[in-house]
Each structure stands twice: as structure tokens, then as C-alpha cells.
UniProtKB/TrEMBL annotation:
Gene3D superfamilies reported for this sequence: P-loop containing nucleotide triphosphate hydrolases
Organism superkingdom: Bacteria
Entry-linked InterPro entries: P-loop_NTPase
Annotated organism of origin: Cellulomonas wangleii
Protein name: ATPase
Amino acid sequence: MPAARTSVLLLGGRSGVGKSTVAAAVHDLLVARDVPHAWVEGDALDLAHPAPWEHGVAEANLADVWRRYRALGYRRLVYTNTVSVLQADVLAAAVGDRPHVTSVLLTGSDATARERLGRREHGASYDAHVARSDAAAVRLGERAGTGVHRVATDGRTPQDVAAEVVALAGW
């Protein structure tokens, strides 16, 4: 693999929009095309209680993880996290080497998000996730800049969405 700079595909969006499902489909598509890449679930980089967000744990862990992938020759990173598209600069700095960043905000209706969340959350957990999802949808819609691609997931297969976001990344 050439010593080119890193290319990062950021997948953000409200809970229930399909970030992880689309990332899995992106992974499958790239594997089928034999395109080397790594996929990192941002939520797993600082999953603790109490949440250590203010300490930059996720970014520090991403830097460590990506350094290892980069040493092995990887140059493409798929990164999922609800607010990743709002943190593109911070995440790019964690990756290093002035990466090319493609930010994609996955969008979906309230009904779609609720239906998908209902598959994995129940009772009070469902209610809390819906409330956070609704708030995130508003925040992301208002704050994601014009350089962020918006890709709808309603009524589409993960494979269809994956093909679109891979094309946006130029991979």
C-alpha cells in the first residue's frame, strides 16, 4: 500500500439512524472489493461510567488505535459516532497526517429511528434513547456544516446507503 495520507469516512447521525449497520455494510462492500480499511466504533473508545468525554479519552484512544493500523499500512478509516461529523477537526488531529475527511450525516425520520431503536431497547431504556435521539437529530441538523454530506436511510437497504457513502469518500 502506498504511503499516502489517511482517508477518513465519518458516519454520524442520531441513534437509530443506522450508523453501525451502514458501517458494517461499508466494511462488507470494501472487503468484497479487496480494499484495505479499518472500522472503528467511536462509542467503544470511551465507553465508561461516568462518561469521560471532557477528558478526550476517545480521541486519545483513536490516536493509539489508528497508529497501530497505520503502522500496518492501512490508509482508510471508517469511524462511527453520533456526533463525529461535528468533531471532524478533532478526529482528524487524532488520526494525524492531515487526513482527507469525508463527513456523512446519516438522516432518518422520527418514525424510522423509533422503530429501529425498538428492536434493541425496551422500557425506560427505549424512552431515554428516543429522547437522546430526537435531541441529537435537532443538534446535528442545526450544527452540521455545509461540507457535511447528508444521506437519508429511510426505506433504503444498508447496502444501498453503503454504496453511496463509499462513493462520496471516493473509495
